[in-house]
Amino acid sequence: MSVITSPGAPTPAVAAARERSAELEHLVARNPAGYRVLTGDRPTGALHLGHLLGTVANRVRLQNLGVEVFLIVADYQVITDRDDAGDLPATVREVLLDYLAAGVDPARSTVFTHSAVPALNQLLLPFLSLVSVAELERNPTVKAEAEASAAQGRRGTSGLLLTYPVHQAADILFCHGNLVPVGADQLPHLEITRTVARRFNQRYAAARPYFAEPDALVTPSLTVLGDDGVKMSKSRGNALELRASEDQTAAYFKRARTDADRTITYEPERRPEIANLLRIGAHFSGTSPEALADEVGPAGAGRLKALVTEAVVEGLRPLRARRRELASAGPRYLADVLARGNARANEIADRTLDDVRGLMGMRY
Ligand code: ATP
Ligand code: MG
Fold first, then answer.
1. Is ligand 1 within 6 A of the CB of residue 58?
2. Is the CB of 54 under 6 A from ligand 1?
3. If you measure from the C-alpha of residue 235 to the centroid of ligand 1, how many angstroms do you get, rounded to a whole number?
4. Separation of 162 CA from ligand 2 center, angstroms?
5. pLDDT (tens digit per residue) in 147-159
6. Which atom of ligand 1 is nearest to the CA of 233?
7. What does the H/E/C string look like for the chain?
8. Using one digit for the tens of pLDDT, what is the confidence trace for 18-52?
């Protein structure tokens, strides 16, 4: 898989996190049972190609290495920046189908919904006391979200959005997650989780630290652009959903934006749309974007789009077949997967909250 690096040199924090991540990959390979991953998605829509290449495939990889993976379907987070959460049961079902079709194995990984785990959410109260409003306001991701919400004429920053990184701390620490796969832009979020863990230990568990400070796993991953040349995202309506049909896939790439140069070359900075198609095609046909560019060359964007469509249709065929099979298995199966995940998450969260109450002197 090829790697996109953002233009310009990485900041020292990002460079350090990348170096640490390379080291972590070795440690994880040697001792997968020593790690627990917490990651997840907001149920705002079915998952798309960007999710698969950017994060879901990596979660499945970690699971298959033997790491215990917790996948949170963060339903409460849907209302951080919108008033209408839509049809949550239907959306949760789609996300669940995408996870399972992509290779998440419910026998090994725990899939649960945020709202179904009360003890996890209760951790938020002590955790909120450990961070200042100024620290939350400084968080670049919170800042960016607040600016985006203002620019789109949505309501101003909600308290839930401001405290988003603390929710994330509760999501990670409730299950003692010690490995969090993140994009470089999410590092500041994890910093707050680490701060919460550290301050909790200092205040309530000085003799024997209770929460481990989780590590960020910054994995090289693709940033996939949508058919409009902007980062693929559910809410932009520019996404190729994993559940799309072959015809929809062909139509999607046919309308994808390209540029006026005839000959295909791999120049990520100068030709981002073409580079995006080359990376997607290369990913699914096991070659490099450069080699694919050489192969297409003067045949132009039409030929490139045909090759990419073919590679994606072939590459997603097993996932889509499995998805259809699961969807036709009836609602019981998916409901059971979620019920088992929720039960396991609750068991762990209850234990953690009980420990926390004990450490805080709140056992009566
Ligand atoms: P929304 O429009 O609701 O923000 P989204 O489609 O942008 O949805 P998110 O829920 O914001 O999806 O993304 C979840 C995770 O999926 C991200 O942290 C990122 O790791 C990955 N991801 C999302 N979109 C892409 C993309 N286009 N390319 C690579 N990775 C992506
Ligand atoms: Mg997004």
1. no
2. yes
3. 10
4. 16
5. 877 777 767 788 9
6. 6
7. CCCCCCCCCCCHHHHHHHHHHHHHHHHHHHCHHHCEEEEEECCCCCCEHHHHHHHHHHHHHHHHHCCEEEEEECHHHHCCCCCCCCCHHHHHHHHHHHHHHHCCCCCCCEEEEHHHCHHHHHCHHHHHCCCCHHHHHHCHHHHHHHHHHHHCCCCCCCHHHHCHHHHHHHHHHCCCCCEEEECHHHHHHHHHHHHHHHHHHHHHCCCCCCCCCCEEEECCCCCCECCCCCECCHHHCCCCECCCCHHHHHHHHHHCCCCCCCCCCCCCCCCHHHHHHHHHHHHHHCCCHHHHHHHHHHHHHHHHHHHHHHHHHHHHHHHHHHHHHHHHCCHHHHHHHHHHHHHHHHHHHHHHHHHHHHHCCCCC
8. 899 999 999 999 999 999 999 999 999 999 999 99
